[in-house]
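Posting this for the archive.
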Amino acid sequence: MEVALFVPCYVDQFYPGAARATLELLEKLGVTVRYPEGQTCCGQPMANSGYEHLAGGCNENFVERFSGYDYIISPSGSCVLHLKEHLHSEKHPVQGEEIRHRIFELTEFLTDILKVEELDARFPHKVGVHQSCHGQRGLKLSQMSELTAPAFSKPGKLLHLVKDIELVELDRIDECCGFGGTFCVAEEAVSVKMGKDRVADHLRHGAEYITGADMSCLMHMEGILRRNKSNTKVIHIAEILNSH
């Protein structure tokens, strides 16, 4: 199996450790990973701000860089959802459509495609899990608490394979952190209040780390933690699953 690794621009610039952990984890699981050079932003910030018509260059570049692979994997649920729902190409329409069906968020790929049942990982800490909205409600990575339906969590299932980890129970398991991409700029006060509430839930239950499948949400909460001089840290789920 040959997969292409898509590293979102903010992960590349601010959290390269999440990208490296994704690469190393996939290779440990026997996957051949390629990194297509010349990749850049998926275009989500423009689309979310009402400028989808200006994202054509991003779309064409993505299709040209990522065509021909068995799968495309990314450690970002929000970017993956955007590409699944909105990627299109005027130059290569068939390839664009194919990519939309072959791109997966990391935990989705590990659970649904590789069907991982064991991991050689150890992380002896108390960890709170943040269920990002794009992943939960868009990619269906976990069940929504307002539904009367069997509970499931793909990130949670993988984390339970990690030795010595203690997952803390939260009061509101799927509350939004308030980041929302450009929402945190357009509605700063609301975004910050939501983020403070989300962080407080983790801190009440003694989390040493907050993890999730979307580094953008973790980045938002990290800013709040740092401003409050908290000892609690954020960590991408790939870094836990790849830990020793």
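The chain has two domains: 2-113, 126-241. The chain is about 45% helix and 10% strand.
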